[in-house]
What does this fold into?
Amino acid sequence: MDALEQRRALIKYFKLSHEVGLNTLMGGNASIRIGSRVLITPTNAPKAELTEEDLVEIDLEGNATSSSKRPSSEWRMHVAIYKSTIYGAVFHAHPPNVLAIMNAGISLDESFSELKSYAHGVAVVPYIEPGTQELADRVAEAMAGGADLVMLEKHGAVAAAASIQEAFNKMEVLEMVAYVTLSTTNARKAI
It folds into this structure.
């Protein structure tokens, strides 16, 4: 996939995250790594209006190398993941069912075949203020340790993969498993 196709895919799947309910209009962020550069979604930009030109290019230190827009406030997390893993894409969302099970203290049922098929491991990071280096370091540490999905307490989730399509799919699978876990827990309580 060439650079333009990667930009288009990043915008396509980031917009789709709002359409399918993984993110609010202004929430979440996504990026792809191209060599020593990172293309990341801008901060405070409504997904419905984003174009390929809105993406911000940063280096692996977080310095913007293009665009008049500012990178997502979570750029530290993306850069930390790229520095500590071989992944080519990072997707951060605020999936409601993932947030619901974490808030209710329910453990994710990781036995689902779809989760096992697409993900290598799920880690949980306790609440740390968004956008901080501390959060970036904890998520990168979990991913360097083998997880490619990280649930962030009272915040959301992060998926990493070779491509943005794969990272998005992992996020959807995580949200689906969280939904089924929550529904099953509620059904058992009702019996």
About this structure: The two ends are 51 Å apart (CA to CA).
